[in-house]
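Continuing from the previous page of notes. For each protein in this section, the sequence appears first, followed by its structure tokens. Read the first protein now.
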Amino acid sequence: MFQPLSREAMARRLARDIPEGSYVNLGIGMPVLVAAHLPPGREIVLHSENGILGMGPPPAEGEADLDLINAGKQPVTLLAGGSYFHHADSFAMMRGGHLDICVMGGMQVAANGDLANWSLGRPGEPPAVGGAMDLAVGARSVYIMMEHTTKSGEPKIVERCTYPLTGAGVVDRIYTDLAVIDVTPEGLRVRDMIDGMTLKTLQERTGAPLRAD
């Protein structure tokens, strides 16, 4: 038997893979949890699309500055040397290729790295893409953090996305509650699995072929 990772554990697993000296955007939702799990002593500069560079972990209880928030409107802290600025400057950083990694949530990721994370394609659904498209094409590496399946058990890693795309062929790595999977020109390669998980069991929960070296 196996026990899927909690969201906090997923954030901890992803955080340990971020290289020293990286400039990293954390998207809305699960990705913001990564800020609290960066390895001590590792210099990593966090960016938020609403205009923060040098974002720190969440504030301690009772110490939140409600004027200092991330793109998801959650209170954050600012590290020494950090700054905040107009969101137009923030988007210039994103579009200009100045971010090493962006971490985003996902609704679907295809075998070729296509990403859908902003719409279920329902008629009349209001647009809510935010800066996801800019990040998907502007960051040097795109990491997706999401549960491996939907609540009803449908795979979120698929052969081809059926939801409206955020970006085509943009995803480099997927972190789920079951595994870490790289998107490569040869297909999806399993980098790591949780304790008790087998490739066969993981494949049963995935809508695209997997391989393990």
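Done with the first. The second protein uses the same format. Note its length before scrolling.
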Amino acid sequence: MALDFELEHQLFSEIWILSDSRSVVQYLDNWRDVSDRRGMDIFNKLKTLCSSSVLHLQWIPSHVNLKYNNIADGLAKEGTTMPQAYVEPLTYLELYSRRKDFVYISWRHPPAH
């Protein structure tokens, strides 16, 4: 939604995307390997934004009392209670791709225990 808002209004010449999810940052960093519809939609929006803005992608630690991270977490929790828009079912290849990515990331980054 934030990308759509920025595409519509073009308010900023510099955009920072901060995430406390390493998997999201890795997903965006490995854009060449993305083949699912939702991922491609995000990348097309980012590509369009790159023509008019400078984009920055940064991981931030979670649960360390960063003011805006706590605000974003609260908004995300609030968003999970809102009615969801209809999303088309995933194809077999999209499901396979997501599972393959999950296994690949798990294999490259084993749990700390």
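What the second structure shows: Strands lie at 14-19, 54-59. The CA atoms of residues 13 and 52 lie 7 Å apart. We return to this in next week's lecture.
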